[in-house]
């Protein structure tokens, strides 16, 4: 007699599980780091300064949801130990809020991990990688994060000014697509 409600409960749980799987698309997997370029001969002292975010792409970026993303800035300030204090100035509800963290240098120049990771509950790993930069006009960064056992990745296009040339835009789109992303995963913040 007691098995009837148990079987009904298990059947309902199975149906809900299948429905949940069908309603959430599988994210595009992060490419292995060895497939993502790293700026050769990265120069820490030349990279520091204020950068505008001109483009963002990633497996958690959704063009429809993020189409009105406002342009924000990231400032890299080099410390004596070659780590960076990284400050983001994000527009939020009619004001700009600063948020900061530290990037710790890794075994390769241009490759960083998140400092004080324990202060970010759920984040198991976080890597920042300088893909390319000319140090004074543009840079492309690649970020991977494992949060609650789910890996995500993001590519960010930095500019020293708010200007985004068509050539730079096309190069960014091409790079994002080379890592498996589609147009729906690429946005260009509104100045």
Automatic annotation (TrEMBL):
The residues forming the signal peptide are 1-20
Give every Lipocalin/cytosolic fatty-acid binding domain span.
48-190
What Pfam families has UniProt attached to this entry?
Answer: Lipocalin
UniProt keyword Membrane, yes or no: no
Q: Where in the cell is it found?
A: Secreted
Spell out the InterPro entries in the cross-references: Calycin, LCN2/LCN12, Lipocalin, Lipocln_cytosolic_FA-bd_dom
This one is known as NGAL protein
Q: Which organism is it from?
A: Crocuta crocuta (Spotted hyena)
